[in-house]
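Write out this protein's structure.
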Amino acid sequence: RGGTFTDCHARLPDGNEIVSKLLSVDPSNYEDAPTEGIRRILDAHDPNREYPRGEKVATGMIGSIRMGTTVATNALLEREGERMGLVTTKGFGDLLKIGDQTRADIFDLTCKAPEVLYKEVVEVDERVMLAEFFDENKNASEIQEMENAISTSGGDDWPKAGYGKRIKSLTGEIVIPLRIPDADKIREDLQELADKGIKSLAIVFLHAYIYPEHERIVGDVAKSMGCFTEISLSHEVMSMVKLVPRGHTACAAAYLTPKISEYLAGFTKGFDDELLTNVRLDFMKSDGGLTPVSDFGGHQAILSGPAGGVVGYAKTSYRTSVKSGGNVASKPQAVIGFDMGGTSSDVSRYDGSFEHVFETTTAGVSIQAPQLDIHTVAAGGGSRLFLQNGLFVVGPESAKAHPGPVCYRKDGYLAVTDANLVLGRVIPEKFPQIFGPDENEPLDLQASRTAFKALSDSNDFSKGRTIEELAWGFIQVANEAMCRPIRNLTQMKGYDITKHALACFGGAGPQHACAMARALGIERVYVHRFGGILSAYGLSMADAVVDQQEPANEVYAFAKEAGQGFDESQDPSASARDRHLDRLADRARSALMKQGYPAASIVVERFLNMRYHGTDNSIMIKEDTSKSANKLPFATTFVDQYHREFGFELTGRDILIDDFRVRAYVPGSTPAPPEEVASLGPPPDSGKTRLYCE
């Protein structure tokens, strides 16, 4: 379900594939677009019964449903999530509002800090500290004395620093619980939140990623009260260092998960009662993997919509060998995915494995969770067109599905689709005839031309220009806006952009792909036969994925004293590394097996989140089994990737492990590459149309 169109792909029992496209919002005809799309396919291809509009859809002929949705993204952008409260450590109530002082545009003199997601804050009198700051220069008897001493400083507010019981944390580090949460006081404070209409909580404490006990205490109290629909504990949402992004992520989960639940309730309402018991319902997560509806959280749904498209082009466009000029190149060719939809355009890169990022910012909120590395720009088929001070401006405002561009016959706004229509790149006779009050009329070319003429007449800058020249100017601006994130994904990360292929999809992608490929120096462009609904098609091929992660505090490799390379005679993290990764792998396998997948079908990938000592830039490194001859294979991969991304190496520094991670998945189907076929000759004459070219 996209911002403008909802795409449907169905595979019938005989193997035939059906595609369908409908407006995401059309309140005069249906309440929910995915439900309506499923109903139409069943009604057209089930000869044994009818599926009338307005009645609950019977699910007896449905084998499974896979969905990707932009509900969470839109709720975050428009700040329409659940009213929620933040519960955090005393003294840190303003931390998420203060943030990290990042300015999206350092030259913007009117820069405004984004709104926080929570409405109320409760500060809990709890505190955990790392013992190493107090025990570093003390002997065992002194440490024992501090552990047994009364841990107060004479007042009731805070204990004396360093005094208290020593406890081993998840990473093996020793922590001191200086103040334990008071359950009775917490209950009183949470009741005040409930009385103010707060129904969702995010619980975020210092050091909870390595010592989560205090968050669990507060979570248990909140659950026992029975008045909160969603309780997000930061160590469960994402157990990683850095309080600010971890806090924002927990807030996003508490803010968006009720919205997802609300949407699911509306979606399931359109079907009979057998939907959730007899039909497998999976949702696409931001990391490109499928998860059961019961495990689908708001923070996992930010990129749910475009993730299906990434899977789609990755499994249909990537080739292990590429033929060029009659010769077959043995080296695979990386692919850039370009998904131009109605509201925005998404670009990504695939080179044999999905590229993930673990901290992104969406609508001013830092999300700390595995996500596909997708860059989004507000330029799509529905992006509105303006002339401002003599400049062509495309977006970020969107005409959306309702009322849509002018040519949709709903008194909409001038948009990129209108420009393509005027230039002859969209032919009304070839476009779905789903417009007008009865959903049976084609695009309105004359209305688009009239709107461009009105824009030209209303602006001194555009007077004297033809309608086509005006439309072409907007298309050039839109193309450049969409080329920019592609350069960021490739050239800014050390990749040669000209060595890539461009896979274009989305309803508007092929209209712009050739011009963009020319501007970027790309020679090969792929357009899939399901390019208009590739995000839906990708869902049919997606992997079922479970991701498990734990914090770490280990040294992976010691730097040589001479400053060059690493000491391969030592592997200081070997024991802890294998123990943690094996435990995470068992946990991930178990989760997939509970979903009904056989153990033999599960593939496990192991990762370490690594950085140089004294730096803050960690990189998630996948285990490279091909380098098994090297005693420290992770180090080799880390150094290579660090050098490619940053342009230099840091010598004389140890390599540290911040996190252990395992990604277990059940591979989805991958279609065989199409065979090379001989040219069919010149295409047949299917008619004539007016076309404007450079």
